[in-house]
Amino acid sequence: MHFLDLKAEGMSLEHTFLNGQCFRWNLTKENSFIGVVAGKVYEAKKMDANTLRLYNATEDERDFFQKYFDLDRDYIGIEKALSGMDSILAQAVEFGRGMRILRQEPWEVAVSFILSVQKNIASTQKNIERLCEKYGQKIFYQDCCFYAFPEAKELVDSDEESIRQTKCGFRAKGVLDAARKVNEGVVVLSNIFDLTYERAREELQKIYGVGQKVADCILLFGFGKYAACPIDTWVKKALETLYGVRFYNMGDYHRFAQKKWEPYSGYVQQYIFYYMRENYRKTKK
């Protein structure tokens, strides 16, 4: 089988794929991860501390995956800077060391985080797979069947009740609205790259079901806008439990976190989210 080796100094696949930013990479028995990206199945494995091997990838895809895994960014330097900000963050960085923030396909990220509203990661992952099985194209890899993530045009002629059959409940309305607005050009995802963080968030919030937190997730994981700072229940708990702050609304938590962690707020919240979700019972003591 052909493969592509990429230089990925200090990268951890576990801390990258299991930190809540993506939903279609799964751990295998061979201690690698298998996932569907851009309509194709790949298997990712760290060969040593600095080498990431992608099976089923070719040399022609090097630039794509260099960007997808954000390999040109100095994460070792970022982790050093974050660790120096305060002792709490130093613990979070140590726990999640080697994390990379993926640059995923914006449409897939948008729908995925609409489906994540009021759901945990495992439930969201199952929901996304059901959506792909119902509407996506079949892909075969090593005699196994996978499914591509459906494009907006593959969803736009559906209806809310049909999408609900994937067990996504009230979120079906947001998925369908996203498909229609993207397909009709009401929201042009490619234009969002050139917008400021504030304008980009406003643009995404034209879609039903996209509030501030979901918009921030889409901007961070799909557009590489690192000013975005998603505040979910885990980050909120971290701010209360670890930093001793409490506010009346989520907007105040968001403003506090952005100001405290700038210019690294997008990175910080992901280390904090991952650390808090995995260690909540310990931090309560």
How would you portray this structure in words?
The chain is of the alpha+beta class and 285 residues long. Among the domains are: 3-73, TATA-Binding Protein (2-Layer Sandwich); 106-223, Hypothetical protein, domain 2 (Endonuclease III, domain 1). Helix content is 50%, strand content 12%. The chain has 15 helices and seven strands. The protein has helices spanning 13-17, 62-68, 75-83, 87-95, 106-115, 121-135, 152-155, 160-164, 172-184, 189-192, 197-204, 212-223, 233-241, 250-261, 265-284, and strands spanning 3-7, 25-27, 33-37, 40-48, 51-55, 138-141, 144-147. A five-stranded antiparallel sheet has the order 1-5-4-3-2. A two-stranded antiparallel ribbon has the order 6-7. A hairpin with a 5-residue loop joins strand 2 and strand 3 (33-37). Helix 11 (197-204) packs across helix 12 (212-223) and helix 13 crosses helix 15 (265-284). The longest helix is centred in the C-terminal third of the chain and has 20 residues, at 265-284. It is globular and about 50 Å long.
